[in-house]
Amino acid sequence: MSLETTLRLSEILLALVMLQQTAEHLRDAADRWIYLPRAVLCLVLLAGWSSGPVIWALWALGVVILHRFDGAYNGGSDKMTFLILTCFGAYHLAPTPFWQELAISYLAVQLVLSYFVSGCIKIINPEWRSGRALQDVFRFSAYPVSEELRRWADHPRVLFLMSWGVMGFEVLMPLALLHPLFLAGLLLVAATFHFANACLFGLNRFFWIWISAYPALFWFQARIFG
User: Fold this and answer.
1) I want to staple 207 with a disulfide (CB 3.0 to 4.6 A). Which of 16, 49, 80, 198 is the partner?
2) Which structural domain range is residue 220 located in?
3) Comparing 127 with 155, which gets the higher pLDDT?
4) Could you report the per-residue pLDDT of 20-29, keeping only the tens digit for each?
């Protein structure tokens, strides 16, 4: 997959993701002045018109939104959105193909680190290694989960295996770069993990925004290790 194809595919996914995020705010008249222009820009990006200026316009609106909510109000998913916009914007400003490749490579490396660092933090935590951390997630979660879902906290052996499954795929992510099939397999596991979080805890934004960055990782693997 060429760098241009990678970028275009990611831009389409990003536009769809940001449209979904934007739709949540269009009913609120107080924020419509920010999100209506954002929706229009996403549609223009989806159509493939003037991608460079549109990306930077979305980036600028992102800064306005950060000011409006005093930071990334949706945590990691907003940060990933901003990272992707910044890397794509840098690509369109890059003076040579080398710098274009560097911009997309930076996104790919950050994507790998987002999993690897998270896995390392978990694996040095004795509560994650024992499965207790996941028990607490299910038992005391602040998310609006059902009582039936909270009963998973009563199955420590299952949660022990789930804990090590999560930590395992996260810390192995850098090794996935060594082979495209291994990368595809681990990203499928990662996407399933995000999908489960979306279904169980309503963290739907993480699922879509992380997937929109996956094409960059496939390109990076082929470019560096292929």
Assistant:
1) 198
2) 3-225
3) 127
4) 888 877 887 7
